[in-house]
Amino acid sequence: MKRIxxxxxxxxxxxxxxxxxxxxxxxxxxxxxxxxxNRKLCNLKFRRQQIIDGFIVDFFCNEAGLVIEIDGPxxxxxxxxxxxxxxxxxxxxxxxxxxxxSNGEVLNDPEAVRETIKQVVSTPPSLIEERGAGG
Length: 135
Fold this sequence. Notes:
Endonuclease, Chain A
């Protein structure tokens, strides 16, 4: 099995789940995928439903070390916000940047989403920290 993110264990269950998620993308995920697939954005390769440290992230760009999460309404709930923050810290320790966009941002202002990603991938890591939890 090809591993994009090194030094992690990936279970068969997670692989099957990620495949199922790719097959059953939401409308918002499909809209985002249309923005970035086939190197449409900064010539970067994005992957859907990538497994990182046991988590299945919505989108991942290995070249830029960038995790993209598309957040529905559940992500505004306090308990989910704590979980999202903990996940973000795990990614940060791995040296990854994380951007979060709401469903509305992706559907209603895709150009702003593209511009935010362009800024992050062209900005030195030290300047990204405050923006990383974005959305």
